[in-house]
Amino acid sequence: IAVLLVMFCVASGRVVSGQTADPFHKLLERGRQHFENGEYNNAEAVLLEAVDVNSKSYEAHYWLGKNYYELQDYRKSEKHYKESIRRNKRFSDAYVGLGRTYMRIKNRMIDARQTMKEGLKYDPTNADVHYQLGRSYLEQSKRDPVAPFYVNQGRKAFQQAVANDTQHPDAYYQLALSYVFPSRDYNRAMSIFYKQLSVNPGHRDALSHLGKCSFLTKQYRVGVDLLQQLMDTHGDALPTYSKTLMAQLKASLLQEEREYDKAAELYDEFIEGLDPAEKIFYTELKYVANEQEMAAYEQATDSEKQEIARKFWGSRDPDPATVVNERLVEHYRRVSHAKEYYSLGKKPWDRRGDIYIRYGEPDDLQHFLLRAGEKALLNYQPTGNARIDAIRERNYLLRYRLKVDNAGAPWANMTTRTIIDPESDDRNNVPMTTQDIHSFSFRSGQETQGLVFVSESWVYVEHDLELFFVDQLGTGKFDYPLGIHETSIEEASIQSRFHPQRAAEQLINRTPEAYRFDYGGQPLDLLYDMVTYKGNNDQTLVEFAYSVPTLQLGTVEDGQGLNTWFDSHVVLRDQDYRRVANTSSKLGPMERPLASRSDKEIGVDLRTASIALHAPPGEYNSAVEVRDEASRRIGIFLQ
């Protein structure tokens, strides 16, 4: 009987306790609902009331800490997370929250890592603790000279996070970033970005980086295949940007495979579907024209502008004998690239985009952190290319030396100087986790704390030029370096004379845009003659006959076969670059020499062919292209 009485009392005590705690649980639930609805001020009032009812509840303090984090009151957030941990040391979510809070407070990154490690003692299988620990390491890597050490530690933490939670919504992405910078192992990173999209198809940043790795490694086919697999599996769950990225990858692949006509069709379809405000970035001439051309363009009507643009691109067609304008296709690719990769700090792109659209990929690009007062040359990695290295060394010794400080400009706000949490709303505004476009960074010395600036050096060998771009204000916007105070008049004069902004302006005035078209083979010399006859229906019959010296065709000893064919194209254009008539033909087979000719042999052996087309009477410019299929030699002649 005594035992039964004791059990009854205990059970009764529990019931009474549950009844007295009921108001508290109602308050806690109401506070959670306000929080989930984004009503943080209402949540604060209700959760404070819950704490008044039960100040010993670790859950109440945890939710208050979480709510104050969203209100960006990090001191109060810290206070309540600590109280939650004091009430329940084994509650790992509180360690995660406190660690995230420390990452938002200046100079508390070490405290953040210590908090995460403490939480792992009680719950080593918690993936989020490993994940946040890894993020703290990656953030530190952007501020410290020993970045590879922190990156390696962060990588280990992310690997453990995905091992504990194979469906983690962001850990694979962070793990992939650890291979992007500073090791630049894009192949490995690409496969991990793909894995992140497999478990979280809505991850926009992972999709963007998957594309970027494909572009940086020029593995367009791999990028297309991976993205197609994701589209087949996840469909509309992928960001709408996936369609844009697929068009970009396919167009780049077609360009690489020299199928410029198909690439042009893709770009035309893509651009036609854009809003007028977006379409103008692809059609405006101001991004490639010189001052005189732009003056005429800006004064023209809309219809006149279209005609000016057509003539502008027509005059720059590197292969007029083909239907497509390869230079215009390349322009579309450059604009698309600039909008995607140089737009973090400024829309539609920052200063790097301006240069990229005009001149394309630099012959060498180096990305580095530069401390105020530090020698930029110490941050360069030798390229092994004598011309590139000579341009950089000459610049440093005799011309512009990159020097950085804030030049009196205001710094970015405090939020941009700390890590941005992926669960917060401002992540999209300042995506600090984008490793290739660092936000404001600083590194600590033993006695002083120096400011560090993310900088880039671009070298264009053809233009004998090195340009610098610096994220001077920590906003992700790269521009020419700001001027700094020089104590030497001579040094100040040199820095001003050869400043990157002035050098770029001089280049634009001299050469507004440039494009080195790859014709896909060595030059082919030939002799040709054009004869016109009166044709039917008031048309003119134009016949082109040409002869090719066989010594240019190689020999059968090269394994390319006994015969070859000549791919021939002829285009007639009027004075305004309008296509009037064109034809193409594959002529052959042509016998190839069995062996190389001896120097003692007299005479020149020729292979001849002809091609004809009809055109209306008039005066035209002609373009003739002949490619030998076996040797891939190509001859283009304009008349």
UniProtKB/TrEMBL annotation:
The keyword tRNA-binding does not apply. Residues 282-367 form the GWxTD domain. Keywords: Repeat, TPR repeat. It holds the Pfam family TPR_2. This is GWxTD domain-containing protein. It comes from marine metagenome. The lineage of its organism: unclassified sequences, metagenomes, ecological metagenomes.
